[in-house]
């Protein structure tokens, strides 16, 4: 099956799909790829370049680093400044600017901040440093949160008492509904995130079709997956079929991954959450349950959030909702660049601004 | 961040498996996925196997791609 990756990149089939798309004669349609990994694939495989002008792809709020508000970075930096704290984090978080500094700058000044491949790696660090407190910066959607939850469960099982999560985990359904209801957001259909769907299953998308009137297709990450999703979505929009389809059946089944979901909801419960540039969305986040309060860095370190503001002049919020493109932001490629980012969308490799900067500058 | 890579399970221990990802072997936790067996293809995300890949569905999808005709207009 490893070889099947080649089949999902087959150039002959891709050309045929591109031809099908190029013959599209219907009204202009706006499709939103919700997931940051899709945004990356779309740019990497040049998919925007082969679409007719009437089929427009907008990037959505599906890069967890990009939607994490500044105050989370500020809280992480405050923890990093404590002598007995080791911060562990995914690498994407390092260069996100808080209101004064970034984790990378803090690391350069000698703070103990370590990039990990998996949250589980934090447990080994905690076990090897019993006189330190190890805090993992837990961001991510339904794909990643079960791994954070598993890490906490294992810490409890293994009696590791110097491990904590600073969590800002979020879930997809409520932000998708928020986009559907926003009169300024002009979307005709969603390309749904394949690896969130691996965990959640497909029911939430049926609700978005039935109650919010928005069609969508769950897509994998290979070029044929994405081209196919676009063709199906445009076909359904033109035919008036408001439904959700699964184009990634090799990985996504209707019920999702019940073991991962059980772990997730053992440790976390839904809460209201702030999204960078978008604001507070009820029920769109996850907080740790009281039973795991000892592992919750917000509680254990009594962290207070005073400032909810986003960087001035930054259009991240508009970009995350698909209302504007990065090039419409005055900061883009002037004072905001990958080397010196202002907004998170320029930092993460999955961020829309970073993708535009890397792949779209010559236009 | 939701990147997940498919690989073939080549070895199983109590709570982990070794996954061959394009020739590179990598350990992954099996504590988020039931019934992982040697020979399965799994998606690995942040050090955990999160789902089995269904080979028959993959083949069916490729066939469906090849048979696509056009976009329906109305």
UniProtKB/TrEMBL annotation, chain B:
<dbReference type="InterPro" id="IPR019812">
    <property type="entry name" value="Hydgase_assmbl_chp_CS"/>
</dbReference>
<protein>
    <submittedName>
        <fullName>Hydrogenase assembly protein HypC</fullName>
    </submittedName>
</protein>
<dbReference type="Pfam" id="PF01455">
    <property type="entry name" value="HupF_HypC"/>
</dbReference>
<dbReference type="InterPro" id="IPR001109">
    <property type="entry name" value="Hydrogenase_HupF/HypC"/>
</dbReference>
<dbReference type="GO" id="GO:0051604">
    <property type="term" value="P:protein maturation"/>
</dbReference>
<dbReference type="GO" id="GO:1902670">
    <property type="term" value="F:carbon dioxide binding"/>
</dbReference>
<dbReference type="GO" id="GO:0005506">
    <property type="term" value="F:iron ion binding"/>
</dbReference>
<comment type="similarity">
    <text>Belongs to the HupF/HypC family.</text>
</comment>
């Amino acid at each position: 099956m490893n070889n099947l990756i080649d089949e999902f990149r087959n150039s002959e089939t891709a050309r045929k799909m591109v031809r099908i798309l190029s013959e599209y004669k219907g009204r202009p349609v706006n499709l939103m790829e919700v997931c940051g990994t899709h945004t990356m694939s779309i740019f990497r495989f040049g998919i925007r370049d082969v679409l007719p002008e009437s089929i427009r792809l907008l990037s959505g709020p599906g890069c967890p680093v990009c939607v994490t508000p500044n105050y989370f970075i500020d809280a992480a930096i405050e923890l990093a400044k404590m002598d007995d704290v080791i911060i562990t984090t995914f690498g994407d978080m390092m260069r996100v600017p808080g209101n004064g500094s970034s984790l990378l700058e803090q690391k350069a000044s000698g703070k103990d901040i370590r990039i990990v491949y998996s949250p589980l790696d934090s447990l080994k660090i905690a076990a090897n440093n019993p006189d330190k407190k190890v805090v993992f910066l837990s961001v991510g959607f339904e794909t990643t949160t079960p791994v954070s939850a598993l890490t906490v469960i294992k810490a409890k099982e293994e009696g590791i008492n110097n491990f904590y999560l600073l969590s800002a985990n979020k879930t997809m359904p409520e932000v998708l509904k928020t986009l559907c209801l926003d009169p300024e957001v002009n979307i005709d259909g969603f390309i749904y995130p394949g690896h969130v769907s691996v965990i959640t299953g497909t029911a939430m998308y049926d609700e978005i079709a039935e109650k919010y009137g928005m069609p969508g297709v769950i897509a994998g990450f290979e070029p044929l997956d994405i081209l196919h999703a676009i063709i199906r979505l445009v076909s359904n929009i033109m035919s008036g079929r408001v439904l959700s389809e699964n184009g990634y059946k090799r990985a996504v089944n209707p019920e999702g991954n019940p073991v991962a979901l059980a772990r997730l909801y053992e440790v976390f419960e839904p809460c209201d959450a702030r999204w960078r540039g978008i604001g507070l969305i009820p029920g769109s986040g996850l907080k740790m349950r009281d039973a795991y309060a000892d592992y919750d860095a917000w509680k254990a370190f009594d962290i207070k959030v005073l400032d909810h503001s986003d960087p001035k002049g930054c259009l991240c919020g508009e970009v995350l909702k698909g209302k504007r493109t990065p090039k419409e932001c005055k900061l883009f490629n002037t004072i905001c660049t990958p080397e010196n980012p202002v907004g998170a969308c320029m930092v993460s490799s999955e961020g829309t601004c970073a993708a535009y900067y890397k792949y779209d500058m010559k236009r | 961040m939701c990147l997940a890579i498919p690989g073939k399970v080549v070895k199983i221990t109590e709570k982990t498996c070794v996954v061959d990802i394009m020739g590179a072997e990598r350990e992954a936790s099996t504590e988020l996925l039931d019934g992982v067996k040697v020979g399965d293809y799994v998606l690995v995300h942040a050090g955990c196997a999160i789902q089995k890949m269904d080979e028959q569905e993959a083949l069916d999808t490729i066939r469906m791609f090849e048979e696509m005709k056009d976009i329906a207009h109305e």
